[in-house]
C-alpha cells in the first residue's frame, strides 16, 4: 500500500538529485572540451545556482520597483463613447476647501470631475469651431499654441498677442450667430456646473481667462506655447474655482496626441493617469483645486480646438459676456490684459 500510494522512491530520488550533478554530469560532459571533466561538474552546478539566484534577485527587484513606482492608466472618456454623464467624486484639496468655504452657495457637495456629451449640441460646437477658425485667421502663435480670448480681445500673433478688436481687417469677423451661440453655450455650461456640484447658479460667475485654444505640434517658441505642463488651475489662475472645457474637434480624427490627462497621485510614487479623449461638443468640468492636477498631451498631428470656460465664486472676479467690439477696450494695452501671460498655462 505504502509503495503504491505515492511516487516510487526511485523517481523521488532522481528528482532530488537533478541538481546534484548526477544525471546532469553526463549530459554536461558531452559538451566539455576535454576528457576527465568529472571534476568540473560541481562548479557548473554552482554556476547554475548562482545564475538562478541572480535571476531571482533581479525579478524581486523588478517586482518591488514596479509595485512601488507605478503609473496606472485609466480611460475616463474615449472619443467613441457618447456620454450622458460620467463623473468621479474626489476629496477636495485642503487649500481649495479652505478658500471655497468663504463663498456660501458655491461650495461643492463634493469635489470631483465630470464629462458629458449632452450639454452642448454638435451643431453648436460646429458654430463655435467656425468662430474659432474665423478668429485664428487673423492671428496665430508661431509656436504650437494659439489663444483667442473674446472677452479681452487677446489673440496670439507670432510670439505675442494683439487685440483682435483693434485689427481693421477683423472688424466683422464674428457673426450674430457666433455671438449668440457663444453666450448660450456658456450659460448651459454654467448651469451644468451648478447642477453637478449642487451650487446656486447665481453664485457662479464667468471669470478670466476664458478662451479658445488652437493646439498643433508646432515647435514651441515661447513659454506660452508649452501647453503640456502638468498644473493645477487654481494655482495658475487664482480666480478659478470651477474649470470647464468644451472640445470642438475630435481626438484621432482631426488630430492625434492631445488627450487631456488628470494626474491622480496616491502617495509619493504611485500615480494614475486618467484620460479624456476630446470629442466634438464634449464638456468636461472639474473643481479647480489640487485634487484635479492635469495636463494636455502634446499634439502629434492635426489641429485641436477647445474652449476653456472658467468660473469663480468670487463676485470680485466675475466677468460679463463679451461685447465683441472695441467698446470693451478700456486698457492702456489695447484691451490685452496685463496678466495675459497667465492665459496659457
Ligand atoms: O484644453 C484642454 O484640454 C485643457 C486646457 C487647460 O488645462 C487649461 O486651459 O487650463
Ligand atoms: Fe488647466
From TrEMBL:
Keywords: Dioxygenase, Iron, Membrane, Metal-binding, Oxidoreductase, Transmembrane, Transmembrane helix
Record-annotated Fe2OG dioxygenase domain positions: 210-315
One cellular component (GO) term of this entry: membrane
Keyword Oxidoreductase attached: yes
The protein's required cofactors: L-ascorbate
Keyword Oxidoreductase: yes
Region (Disordered): 1-44, 318-345
A UniProt-annotated Pfam family: 2OG-FeII_Oxy_3
Record Gene3D superfamilies: q2cbj1_9rhob like domain (2.60.120.620)
Transmembrane segments: 50-69
GO molecular function, one term: dioxygenase activity
Native organism: Anopheles darlingi (Mosquito)
PANTHER family xref list: 2-OXOGLUTARATE AND IRON-DEPENDENT OXYGENASE DOMAIN-CONTAINING PROTEIN 3, PROLYL HYDROXYLASE-RELATED
Protein name: Fe2OG dioxygenase domain-containing protein
Amino acid at each position: 500500500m505504502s509503495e503504491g500510494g505515492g511516487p516510487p522512491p526511485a523517481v523521488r530520488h532522481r528528482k532530488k538529485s537533478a541538481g546534484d550533478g548526477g544525471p546532469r554530469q553526463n549530459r554536461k560532459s558531452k559538451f566539455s572540451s576535454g576528457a576527465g571533466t568529472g571534476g568540473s561538474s560541481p562548479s557548473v552546478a554552482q554556476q547554475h545556482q548562482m545564475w538562478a539566484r541572480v535571476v531571482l534577485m533581479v525579478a524581486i527587484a523588478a517586482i518591488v520597483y514596479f509595485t512601488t513606482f507605478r503609473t496606472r492608466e485609466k480611460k475616463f472618456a474615449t472619443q467613441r463613447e457618447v456620454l450622458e454623464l460620467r463623473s468621479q467624486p474626489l476629496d477636495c484639496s485642503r487649500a481649495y476647501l479652505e478658500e471655497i468655504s468663504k463663498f456660501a452657495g458655491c461650495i461643492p457637495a463634493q469635489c470631483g470631475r465630470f464629462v458629458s456629451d449632452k450639454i452642448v449640441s454638435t451643431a453648436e460646437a460646429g458654430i463655435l469651431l467656425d468662430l474659432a477658425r474665423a478668429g485664428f485667421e487673423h492671428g496665430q502663435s508661431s509656436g504650437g499654441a494659439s489663444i483667442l480670448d473674446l472677452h479681452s480681445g487677446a489673440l496670439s500673433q507670432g510670439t505675442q498677442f494683439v487685440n483682435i478688436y483693434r485689427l481693421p481687417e477683423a472688424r466683422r469677423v464674428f457673426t450674430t450667430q457666433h455671438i449668440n451661440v457663444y453666450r448660450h453655450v456658456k450659460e448651459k455650461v454654467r448651469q451644468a456646473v451648478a447642477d453637478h456640484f449642487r451650487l446656486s447658479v447665481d453664485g457662479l460667475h464667468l471669470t478670466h481667462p476664458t478662451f479658445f485654444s488652437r493646439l498643433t505640434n508646432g515647435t514651441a517658441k515661447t513659454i506660452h506655447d508649452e501647453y503640456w505642463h502638468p498644473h493645477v488651475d487654481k494655482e495658475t489662475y487664482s480666480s478659478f474655482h470651477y474649470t470647464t472645457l468644451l472640445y470642438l474637434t475630435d481626438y484621432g480624427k482631426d488630430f492625434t496626441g492631445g488627450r487631456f490627462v488628470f494626474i491622480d497621485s496616491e502617495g509619493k510614487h504611485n500615480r494614475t493617469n486618467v484620460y479624456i479623449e476630446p470629442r466634438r461638443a464634449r464638456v468636461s468640468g472639474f473643481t479647480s483645486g489640487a485634487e484635479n492636477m492635469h495636463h494636455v498631451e502634446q499634439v502629434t498631428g492635426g489641429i485641436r480646438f477647445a474652449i476653456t470656460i472658467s468660473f469663480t465664486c468670487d463676485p470680485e472676479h466675475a466677468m460679463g459676456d463679451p461685447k465683441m467690439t472695441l467698446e470693451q477696450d478700456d486698457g492702456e494695452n489695447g484691451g490685452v490684459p496685463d496678466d495675459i501671460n497667465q492665459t496659457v498655462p
